[in-house]
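Hi support team,

I submitted a single chain yesterday and got back a structure, but I'm not sure I'm reading the token output correctly. Could someone confirm the output below corresponds to the sequence I sent? I've pasted both exactly as they appear in my results page.

Thanks,
R.
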Amino acid sequence: MIKTGLQWNGLQDIPLRVGYVYVSQVTPNGFARATFASPGVGQVFTAGAGYKIREDLKFDGAFEYAMTSGTVSADDTGASDLKTGEYKTNAFVIHTGLNYAF
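Hi R., thanks for writing in. Yes, this is the structure output for that exact sequence:
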């Protein structure tokens, strides 16, 4: 897994953030099933911002798009219940948080 991110503080009280994550394959092709993670590499893209409401109260929010895909062929394993073809997982996520410092 490789993660990277940037934060820009150019706007007063509103930090802007972006991030990227590369995830190596975690499910072997021979174990491809609908209930497991898709057999393939994954990528995650995020963008978000924060807002300082007052000195001790901050709000953060972010949007995330995650995708994983891989192809499984009959040569990957001898299992009779293996479903060959393309496996894909896509997810859209919203993250929010309210931080109070005391």
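A quick pointer for reading it: Residues 2-100 form one domain. Let us know if anything else looks off.

Best,
Support desk
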